[in-house]
């Protein structure tokens, strides 16, 4: 049986990229899991604090993310859904893994290298300066490996941007098994989605992101139809009037076509060129209207569900607490084995 695990940071309401690229697939995996499979989704607060967060805001975002995942269709009766920061075994295992992970492995991570580059060239409006390059940010991929390994996960649905981190988790699992001569941890496999990366509506050279400064760059799952229409009408494209699908040369238009396809079908093999051709002779405004309608059809039921769920914080806390209990049971079993293996079990 498979143990499927993935996580998301409580750094803001999920956007269309998080939904189409990750959460929608999580729901599908949950609903198609075989008997005996375990499906685990985790809100990773300890990852969020690797960058500065306002404490009051973070508390709210953790509840918002829980409500968002439930609104998108994660069902706590089918999936183990919980907050990482309520399960101390994650950080306990991370420390032990820190002690077998060469620093060189982490220095090679492209996420770290790009943050380093930004910080070194920091201007006044840059998001990261050198003081933010903390040890937690550097060691983040080890905590991610611990998140996966604490549940002995076998399958991890994450986007291509996470491939390097997942390979690192495999290296760490292998290093642990090798050092202690024990096959305690299975090799976690990446479960990729065929979903195209959703790009920023303001700058198609960037992906859509929770933390980008402009609200207009992303569509949130809580946006109402008027907001969605306005953001898509304002999406940056290019000056060519003809509509063609050329994701490299025309990323703005390509992004609209791929969002249209993703919202109207879950079929991964959908022919995006053909969709582009079907708009021949029509205006970009027509395409944008169709994209807005398709996004609204997908997002609006989720928004309504979110509003209903978010109005019940005590129920949300019950869901999180029930998840915590189950997650701790699993995690403490692994931790006991790990501590026995390492020589830290008894006094
Ligand atoms: N634009 C995107 N298109 C497709 N998938 C995306 N994901 C993120 N952005 C896009 C996928 O969403 C999952 C959860 O992401 P995360 O919260 O762990 O952080 P992230 O990848 O760094 O996403 P954000 O939205 O850009 O958040 P911030 O701004 O907090 O860093 C992942 O599976 C990711 O692949």
TrEMBL record:
It is found in: Mitochondrion matrix. It comes from the Eukaryota. Pfam families: tRNA-synt_1b (PF00579). Its EC number is 6.1.1.2. Signal peptide: none annotated. GO terms for biological process: mitochondrial tryptophanyl-tRNA aminoacylation. Its main location: mitochondrion. Keywords: Aminoacyl-tRNA synthetase, ATP-binding, Ligase, Nucleotide-binding, Protein biosynthesis. NCBIfam families: trpS. This is Tryptophan--tRNA ligase, mitochondrial.
């Amino acid at each position: 049986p498979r143990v499927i695990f993935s996580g998301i940071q409580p750094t803001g309401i999920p956007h269309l990229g998080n939904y189409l690229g990750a959460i929608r697939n999580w729901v599908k995996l949950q609903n198609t899991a075989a008997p005996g499979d375990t499906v685990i989704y985790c809100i990773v607060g300890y990852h969020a604090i690797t960058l500065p967060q306002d404490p009051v805001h973070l508390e709210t975002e953790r509840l918002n993310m829980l409500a968002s995942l439930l609104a998108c269709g994660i069902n706590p009766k089918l999936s183990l859904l919980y907050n990482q920061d309520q399960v101390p075994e994650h950080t306990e295992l991370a420390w032990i893994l820190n002690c077998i992970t060469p620093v060189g492995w982490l220095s090679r991570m492209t996420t770290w290298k790009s943050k380093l580059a930004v910080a070194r060239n920091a201007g006044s409006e840059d998001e990261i300066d050198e003081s933010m390059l903390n040890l937690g940010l550097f060691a983040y991929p080890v905590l991610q490996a611990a998140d996966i390994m604490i549940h002995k996960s076998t399958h991890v649905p994450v986007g291509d941007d996470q491939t390097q981190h997942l390979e690192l988790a495999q290296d760490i699992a292998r290093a642990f098994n090798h050092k202690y001569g024990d096959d305690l941890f299975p090799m976690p496999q990446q479960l990729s989605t065929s979903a195209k990366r959703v790009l920023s509506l303001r700058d198609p050279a960037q992906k859509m992101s929770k933390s980008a400064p402009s609200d207009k760059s992303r569509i949130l799952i809580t946006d109402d139809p008027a907001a969605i229409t306005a953001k898509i009408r304002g999406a940056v494209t290019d000056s060519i009037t003809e509509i063609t699908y050329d994701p490299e040369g025309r990323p703005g238009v390509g992004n609209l076509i791929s969002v249209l396809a993703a919202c109207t079908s879950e079929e991964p093999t959908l022919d995006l060129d053909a969709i582009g051709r079907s708009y021949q002779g029509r205006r970009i405004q027509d395409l944008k209207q169709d994209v807005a309608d398709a996004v609204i059809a997908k997002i609006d039921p989720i928004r309504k569900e979110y509003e209903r769920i978010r109005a019940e914080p005590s129920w949300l806390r019950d869901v999180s607490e029930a998840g915590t209990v189950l997650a701790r049971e699993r995690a403490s079993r692994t931790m006991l084995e790990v501590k026995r293996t390492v020589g830290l079990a008894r006094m």
